Amino acid sequence: MKNLLGGKGSNLCEMTKLGLPVPKGFVISTQACINFFDSNDFPEGLEQELNDSLMQLEKQTKKQFSGENPLLVSVRSGARTSMPGMMDTVLNLGLNEKTIKSMIEKTKNERFVLDSYRRFIQMFSNVVLNLEHDKFEEILEKEKQNTETTKDCDLTAESLKKIIKEYKNLVEQETKNTFPEEPKQQLILAVKAVFNSWNNKRAITYRKLNKIPDSWGTGVVIQEMVFGNLGETSGTGVCFTRNPSNGIKKLYGEFLLNAQGEDVVAGIRTPRIIAELNEVMPEVFEEFKSVCEKLEKHYKDMQDTEFTIEDKKLFLLQTRNGKRTGQAAVRIAVELVEEKLISKQEALLRINPLDLNQLLHKRIDPKQKLNEIALGLNASPGAASGRMFFDANTAEKESEKGNVILVRHETSPEDIHGMIASKGILTCRGGNTSHAAVVARGMGKPCVVGCEEIKIDYSTKTLKVEGTELNQGDFISIDGTTGKVFLGEIKLIEPEPYKFFSTILEWSDEIKTLGVRTNADTPKDAKKAVELGAKGIGLCRTEHMFFDAKRLPIVQKMILSSSFDERKKHLDELEKMQRKDFEEIFEAMDGFPVTIRLIDPPLHEFLPSKEKLLREINRLKRKRDLNNSDVLEEIAVKKALLIKIKELHEVNPMLGFRGCRIGIVYPEIIEMQTRAIAEAALNLKNKGLSPKPEIMIPLVGIAKELELSRKKVEKVLSDLIPENNIPIGTMIELPRAALTADEIAEHADFFSFGTNDLTQTTFGFSRDDVEGKFFNKYFEEKIFSVSPFVSVDISGVGKLMEIAVGHAKKAKENIKLGICGEHGGDPASIEFCHSLGLSYVSCSPFRVPIARLAAAQAKIKEKK
Amino acid sequence: MKNLLGGKGSNLCEMTKLGLPVPKGFVISTQACINFFDSNDFPEGLEQELNDSLMQLEKQTKKQFSGENPLLVSVRSGARTSMPGMMDTVLNLGLNEKTIKSMIEKTKNERFVLDSYRRFIQMFSNVVLNLEHDKFEEILEKEKQNTETTKDCDLTAESLKKIIKEYKNLVEQETKNTFPEEPKQQLILAVKAVFNSWNNKRAITYRKLNKIPDSWGTGVVIQEMVFGNLGETSGTGVCFTRNPSNGIKKLYGEFLLNAQGEDVVAGIRTPRIIAELNEVMPEVFEEFKSVCEKLEKHYKDMQDTEFTIEDKKLFLLQTRNGKRTGQAAVRIAVELVEEKLISKQEALLRINPLDLNQLLHKRIDPKQKLNEIALGLNASPGAASGRMFFDANTAEKESEKGNVILVRHETSPEDIHGMIASKGILTCRGGNTSHAAVVARGMGKPCVVGCEEIKIDYSTKTLKVEGTELNQGDFISIDGTTGKVFLGEIKLIEPEPYKFFSTILEWSDEIKTLGVRTNADTPKDAKKAVELGAKGIGLCRTEHMFFDAKRLPIVQKMILSSSFDERKKHLDELEKMQRKDFEEIFEAMDGFPVTIRLIDPPLHEFLPSKEKLLREINRLKRKRDLNNSDVLEEIAVKKALLIKIKELHEVNPMLGFRGCRIGIVYPEIIEMQTRAIAEAALNLKNKGLSPKPEIMIPLVGIAKELELSRKKVEKVLSDLIPENNIPIGTMIELPRAALTADEIAEHADFFSFGTNDLTQTTFGFSRDDVEGKFFNKYFEEKIFSVSPFVSVDISGVGKLMEIAVGHAKKAKENIKLGICGEHGGDPASIEFCHSLGLSYVSCSPFRVPIARLAAAQAKIKEKK
């Protein structure tokens, strides 16, 4: 029907068929439009049909064109697909010198009728007669000046009469014809004009942009005009069939008596809540309630409606599925199932998984005015508000007195205590994989990074943004879900446990086939993830354990060791600590698999920065110059450290000495880690628990790398665990790993796609250097619409994943395949992973519910 | 025949068939060996056959087993494929108490015969009787001590007799049997032992490693022993049929009278040149000459032979194709064609293209002792020798007094004048794409980079390596072809124009179908490349023009501009300079295509380093502290610059704001470059020349990037050149570009594979951080045998190239495809590019001849 009648026309017919009170009318088909273009004229018989339909409409409405109870109509375009605002519309058609008199009599509102007539002439002249809009505006403007009036609605009936006369003169002058009085003539001209508007410049451009064929043509919808402003028995309003902010099943809307749609929107008068309609017009209210029920039954969803009451008669002008908050979406979906309107599958498809974030994190109370001052990257969801401080120590101290936000250029492992003490973190550099972003996500703390508009001066303890300067201790707020930064303190809404949420997730688990694990490095994260439904850890990054303040010095000594024995000594110390970490994590994840990635980052990440050390050396040198202090030895030590750091310095650390490369050059490091894993597992087993470790070798690009690393790991395992069955696998995070996945699979029990790094290398994008920087330009230029770091780039990165999956399964049919990049928590990427046939996705704890729902949606869509 | 008789056996038969004087003998087939293992015993009939063959051998040699003119034989293994040293051999078989007497009589050399007998017993006992070698050595050692002798050859006949007796006692004691006297018995035991040696541990391991099937078995070669030490009418020697160092067709070898093979090798006596054999034994010499001719005719190549003369009778012991220098290889190949022994195609296949380097660059005179002190990366071929200096200014000044080598941690654009003044460049950091490497190759100057063993101290102007300390001004030498560094001054050989070289390249051009272009950024390079046969420029890097000392300040101002207008002003200045550059390059390449790559490197590469600036600021601060100098303003300026540099700082510049990304954010930069190209082309056209520019957009990963960039470039071109037909293309240097090459091809007239960056991203290897660092470990662990930056990694990077070529040709059949990475000069990679169907390869000027030959070889191999 849509193809023949256009979207608007068919929707109108649908509502009419349901017996809903919509303004009466009829539709001219798109075929008529196509014929019109073919023959360059009104197709044969169309005029007759138009007359017949019109006669029927007159009968139905008990109104007549040019009659005493005059029929006025709207003439609108309506293509198969909505093309909002692209084509033309004529309203109030049917007005002329005769009918306005009848209207005035009927409405007792001369001004209203004259204003409608004035608008009709102007609109018709512009759309149908192709006269310039501006010339009419000139006349209007002149009259306003003459009468010292500023607003259109303040013009008197007298003025309007004068204007109407001048409008008609203008039409006569320009067209050498009088303005058409006869409504039928008006109608035929209007229909032709709407047909022709299919080929106006706007519409052609829009079609090109949206790939809509030029051949479709438009339908024309002709509908009786209805008026809510015909007195105190008329009115207009908007109403949701359920509460869009919490989902409770109760009408939620407002109305105004004696008013038109514009009046509600303009906000000049205060509308009344919908329940009060019961007091004013109880029958209409009852009818409206029953209409809403019908609508919900038909559309099987909460509706957002517009209605008009013309002299106690209800007309539905529009209905559509209503927008809603995450909380409402969840409740409505569950209750529609309970009401047997939709199936569980349909219910799950109704919810945008990302909206679940609103149920998991603090969010900004929408009932307040916000002063947005900057936009950064949304690194970790949730909102936070507090006084800002620029260093970890002060932030920690001040946090005793109230909520604190830590604001820095970028964070480093030395800032951890400040991050723990803060409610949220804001940085002006770094991307979604920066230290701040990764740690904040792990902590479940709101975080905005890469907010380059903000300029911090550590020395003066001030922050400049958009010309205003803020001081340490001033209030600031961030929304990690959107990346927005606000001035001042704002009110937040706490997330609450919510039964409908649990129901949705239970249903998701019933349906989904894709497993959901979590990325967690600490027992706390692991526990949280289990709570949120994770069935294992897909990525446990061991190096984050190295960043602990007590361990970092040992790690540094290990790195700076100049001999194997020295390195071994420090590794032994670390082993004890790692073993304890693993024991705690295995315990939190008891019975579920825990994939532990061996050391991955470049070693220099664990050392102080060159700049910092240089600054310290220079400070010492100046001290020596000024006070002749004895700092020579101190300088020498620092200089030696500096030399080591320079040796380890890398131009492109992302592509340098990291991942499995470290274990190949220093096998003792991964041997230590393997030992810690094996012993932790043994200890727990002895306690009666069921630890299930899996060992993952990172950054493999060549099969031989995995073969060698695996040998080292297996040797340690078989020495410690006689019946060793710990799976050993690798990440697929380099293009070459994907391309040679068959060779690599021979040495792997499982693969886990590291789509963060895979995206970086496939595109040649360093997240740290692109996200906060030229990506905005790329969005602006429509080079992409969503960051490939948020949603898997299916045509590039996805292609590699597809190649890898194909190769891997060919080489080893039962190889386990997962994903542990951040894409593991993105619904579109989850759908893609499901279609690839992966076994599981792994994401940060707070993304687990999102992933569960998205996985279920993927399964449902696949069936369809 | 090889399968049945083994390699050695069939070769022996081949030489015999040619009528060459080889020691007479026969072969036991590999099939016999297989049967031996199957039946666990000597196969039926083999003993009889052995007897028959032996009888025939006795007839042929006129010697008899156990006779007065005793026949001695060697018994050797010989599998299908050479397995050098893996299986066993018995020499001098046939000696016993009786035959030694005859031998002594015949040779008049008792000591020699007794020593041979002693050796035979020891060898036979070890190989055949499985007795431990050490026990025999003990006996030998004791006798040497008793007689106060140090060398074996100084033992007297008396001592040898004593030893032989003790050896035999030992055998009897260990085996409970006397040492076998009967030669036939000796022979059967020896043949079984050689069979069995197929399954010794060494041989099994070797087969596993080299994937040789265990089922093949070995042949056994039994050959008459010949002796060159039977007096002054006997002798031995080695000889090349042509001179292996210059290829001149004249016997080149040496011989010793009354000597065995070992004596020539041992170097105790000075051998005589082969021509002198004519004086001593003219008939033998004539025979030898004719043998050499026959060998060359048969093997169609220069031969490296070993021969023995036993009592005026010539025996050929071995012949193989002789190793030779590049110069000799070229001459021999050409002359063999002239002699109608081989075809041009065969001639071209005979030459290792890389050996042509020896004809293009200075090389180390091999006739001198070298003191190698370190090994770095061979960044630019050729050798250089001179006094070393650690900074560009001193190097430039000192170069007036003699040859100079510039030695630095790494070079930067500010060192260019020092590099120009030096004969060679040595750095201790950086890889093959470091500034030093790239610039040196462009200049055709020897360069060794990433030589991490060398520690330079700029402050004391000293260099430490392997414990020795050198001072500025000391002599040092480098070989950029091998990456070796030598202490002191060394003698170099100049390359000379060489007619055979030109012939080879002419032939190459006749055959090859792959085009050869050059990577050149200067008119000088372009001219050199045309001289060496390049037919166009495949990569002209415009940014190297920016590094010029006069331009760098303008480039820096352009980068630091805070407004469009300011940036535009500096770009206008640069435009004039670039236009002139392009004019000169187009002129040098007149009529040939010149592919110009628009700006590629990250902008911060043009700014001073953060460290350097920090040092300067600190120097100023200390100056202020000490002297109260008025440097505040100077500090402020530097601090402002530092802030800009920090803003532009990137964590991974390889993957940051570079390539087409720059032109998308600052279109005015590529517009300026396009204008300079177009105007230069117009100016030359007006002078009657035929410039053929092609514009290349770097680092495209998304089709839309190219679409946008192309639009900007085309706009400028069509404004300037009404009938614009300048091709616009892109580099394929990111995995995503290869994977989506069909989409990208829609906007490209040509593709050029940037295999340097493609290798970096596919492997996740930053050249700067891996080559000089853990790559050595990777070679050691056999993770790869050749660096993927030297030869295209066919299974990973090559796979992407294949995907890209397939996609590109499907989308645009006639798209031009080339390669401009450094692999364009690597023979194996050229063969791969040929097989992919690329149109051309592009390489540095001095690689052009190598590429021409390699391209011809690829074509010839393909036909086969």
Spatial order of the strands forming the largest sheet of chain A:
11-21-20-13-14-15-16-12
Helix content of chain A: 40-55%
Rg on CA atoms of chain A, Å: 35 Å
Strand content of chain A: 15-25%
Q: Gap between N and C termini of chain A, in Å?
A: 23 Å
Q: What is the overall silhouette of chain A?
A: elongated
Give a structural overview.
2 copies of one chain form a homodimer. The first copy, chain A, is built from 36 helices and 30 strands. With 864 residues, the first copy, chain A, is of the alpha/beta class. Chain A has an 8-stranded mixed beta sheet. In chain A, strands 23-24-25-26-27-28-29-30 form an 8-stranded parallel barrel, surrounded by 6 helices. The first copy, chain A, has a 5-stranded antiparallel beta sheet with strand order 7-6-5-8-9. In chain A, helix 16 links the parallel strand 13 and strand 14. Chains A and B meet through helix 24, helix 26, helix 28, helix 29 and helix 31 of A and helix 24, helix 26, helix 28, helix 29 and helix 31 of B.
Task: List the keywords.
8-stranded mixed beta sheet; 36 helices; 30 strands; about 850 residues; alpha/beta; elongated; homodimer; 8-stranded parallel barrel
How is this structure best summarized?
The first copy, chain A, is α/β, with parallel strands linked by helices.
Explain the layout of strands and helices:
The structure is a homodimer of 864-residue chains.
Chain A: H1 2-17, E1 25-28, H2 30-39, H3 46-61, E2 73-78, E3 89-93, H4 97-107, H5 110-127, H6 133-146, H7 157-175, H8 183-197, H9 201-210, E4 219-224, E5 235-240, E6 252-257, H10 261-266, E7 272-273, H11 277-280, H12 282-299, E8 303-310, E9 313-321, H13 326-338, H14 344-349, H15 357-360, E10 363-364, E11 372-375, E12 377-380, E13 383-389, H16 392-398, E14 404-408, H17 416-421, E15 424-427, H18 435-443, E16 447-449, E17 455-457, E18 462-465, E19 468-471, E20 475-479, E21 484-487, E22 492-493, H19 499-511, E23 515-519, H20 523-531, E24 537-541, H21 543-546, H22 552-560, H23 564-588, E25 593-597, H24 610-627, H25 632-648, H26 660-665, H27 667-686, E26 692-697, H28 703-720, E27 728-732, H29 735-739, H30 741-745, E28 750-753, H31 755-763, H32 767-770, H33 775-780, H34 797-811, E29 816-819, H35 827-836, E30 840-843, H36 848-863
Parallel strand pairs in A: 13-14, 14-15, 15-16, 23-24, 23-30, 24-25, 25-26, 26-27, 27-28, 28-29, 29-30
Antiparallel strand pairs in A: 1-4, 2-3, 2-4, 5-6, 5-8, 6-7, 8-9, 10-22, 11-21, 12-16, 13-20, 17-18, 18-19, 20-21
